[in-house]
């Protein structure tokens, strides 16, 4: 059995030996290196740009400024096209590109940046979401931008007024009236910090522009969407824009949609056909995109028996200076705030707000960690108020399989109690006692994946029996190539080593909507399976003709066609069918809404449970994570080792915003945009005992009953740790990260939180 086995990664050897070529490694003849001049101010008008000294500097080939954008549509964005290639009239955040220098080498380009003279007229700042909503606040965008092509969000581009980028509202039942019948009403406000995605490979791209069109090498997770946006901006057909994706060194959402690609292409238009490369530093990437910070006010009415009566929630998302993926994050926050619980009356209001900070885009489980941190902490607060064990409180209220979380959505497709119990069963679950320094906590994470299910795959069987899979899923480190090759090998009955898959080239690779939202295994996996089934049918038909027998007598086994006593390799069948040692059979597979994967959204509910045991140093406030259990409902684990690795990696990433990660701003200036001052998780942060559990009920919409996974592990970490902290100390801290100082200050307060 190939599916269900922990097959070694097919790209593993290339990566660990250094053979893998990333965009920054490519050696292209005549290549120029480019550096970006960025705004030092959070909000200012650009009075003038003088590049004359830089232009005369030896080794400088070309300089890009706003004056070079007049013959194109300079604005881009997947939700709203509100961001220019380089700043035109004003800058809106520290780090916004103002000019680009292309030179013979990076040192020359860097030196030339210092010779560009930009005069700014500083403007008042919108520092945070409170300032964005304040009366008389400066409006960061004077008019609503045109909507992008791939947002899938109703209402994008509407006029919401002021600094509101987007608004999502949801009402179920009549919460205002039902609160009157509640016996207890609990209201809390939670805060979630700005977090950077931090991938080991910062954003990198190379562009070459000739009379034949545009060739772009990029570490992009969405190459086909990049192709479409570049074609739109530079007024070219898709066939004239080629996007090539070499190996990619991590993404976590940071390489979704369009980041530096428009800038690099615009720069390459000025270099007479010579390719131009931009390799960002980690600090520059941290000033390119981040996760949304959030403030969540949540109020819930309950009966003293533990029945949920009504809920009201308000979510304010800081989307930064430009929309990026803000509207989609706001949309996805809705279902997370409703929560996977029996609740008939609910109202949720989500605002994505413009501020003078780095634009916020996608990051693992968009909108999930922010809202589930608030909701699952809130559930424990309610349980404490009612005197009910938090596990028992959840058991009473969790939705059962087939019940509806949101009207019109796919019913819950998992056993949530099974997952929660799996997370809790290995914890030392005892009733918390005041003044203890250790405790256990749990959290339930359920999120919706709403990426459009559009993917196309080709599978080629060559005359030597080798197989080539051509699919547009980007391998960003998640193991997608291995999973997809396992599916092909399973359906064709060949060893995985006989199947190869390379990176995307949009001129040759068929369309895939994107890599993200845990869709690769379910959506692209289904397209790959369909393509392989098509190829399998062709192979059997060809074998029947070659062997002069009926198709129902033919079996495929380990790369050979078997019929009665006859046995021929696939390669010999292909050669015999075409009458020469050549030719090939090609299978095609398509996935689209309503065809193969259903027409309701989400395609599946991605569920991830977390259980934590912590120890708190009462003198310093430091939290030590003694044990963490992460549970993922995966339907079917096509590659169990990779599935566990994905879930463990997500949980480790979640430790960051739980305990120490936060991008800090002061007066519009980022204070820690770099790995010296910005702390990411290390191996030394791992809990002493770290367990991952997979629930496999073969009940997903993907191949062999698989569901998407890889995002769910990140959402439950913070509330599980926060709930453990409360059970250990009686202190409910509602702002992340749970730094030693923040915990220490809470411990100095003698009042016990409820």
Write the layout of secondary structure elements.
Layout: H1 12-16, E1 32-38, E2 44-50, H2 52-55, E3 60-64, E4 75-76, E5 80-81, E6 83-84, E7 90-91, E8 97-103, H3 106-113, E9 117-122, H4 129-133, E10 146-147, E11 164-172, H5 175-178, E12 184-192, E13 204-210, E14 213-218, H6 223-233, E15 241-244, H7 261-268, E16 276-279, H8 282-286, E17 293-302, E18 308-320, H9 326-338, E19 346-354, H10 368-386, H11 390-397, H12 416-424, E20 438-448, E21 455-462, E22 467-471, H13 480-492, E23 499-501, H14 520-547, E24 555-557, E25 560-563, E26 566-569, H15 570-578, E27 584-591, E28 605-616, E29 623-633, H16 640-659, E30 665-666, E31 669-670, E32 689-695, H17 717-729, H18 740-748
Parallel strand pairs: 1-16, 14-15, 18-19, 22-23, 29-32
Antiparallel strand pairs: 1-8, 2-7, 2-9, 3-8, 4-6, 5-10, 11-19, 12-17, 13-14, 13-16, 17-18, 20-28, 21-22, 21-27, 24-25, 25-26, 28-29, 30-31
Helix pairs in contact: 9-10, 10-17, 13-14, 14-15, 16-17
Structure description:
This protein has 754 residues and is of the alpha+beta class. 25% of the residues lie in helices and 26% in strands. The strands form nine sheets. It has a seven-stranded mixed sheet, with helices on both faces. A five-stranded mixed sheet has the order 11-19-18-17-12. Strand 22 (467-471), helix 13 and strand 23 form a beta-alpha-beta unit. It is globular and about 85 Å long.
